[in-house]
Design a protein that fits this description.
about 170 residues, Arc Repressor Mutant, subunit A, Transcriptional regulator, LuxR family, transcription regulation
Length: about 170
Amino acid sequence: MRGAAKRYARVAGYDEAYQEACAAFLHAIATHHPDAAPFPAYAASRVYGDTRTSMRRWWLAQERTAFQRQSEEGSHEEWDEEPERKGPCCSAEGDSFDRVDQRLTLLRLAREARLAPREAAWLALELAGLDTSEVAEQLGVSPATVRTWRMRAVRKMRERALNAGLSLSDL
């Protein structure tokens, strides 16, 4: 895993590449069939292949954004602004009891979804009102890593909510 991370560290940084390699290794453990191939060969192939695929996505994103022009005023466009913070922790309108109820429901979903410690750390800081860059700074990781944690946490909580009988409109 470290070898794959070193190989692709120039693309997105060592930490991001290592995280992708670890995720690929866990996926290899989950999908390995003992009668198909020896595990070390399968895992090595899976780790290098999945890490390269992930880094290729980074390369393509960098190519697409490499030559973006700044507007004449030097500011960004409306669509590029961060949306207003909404949710159980940041909503200014509405009944405070509803916000507390939403927050408790969210925390219960998080507990039942069995979030990883880093995903739980993201959720706690998100509920404290921090944005992605502030969470990344506080945890000492890149914003892209925080977005990965958020994506995984939301997916787990959504699956748990749907398994509990909630509909998409309830979420």
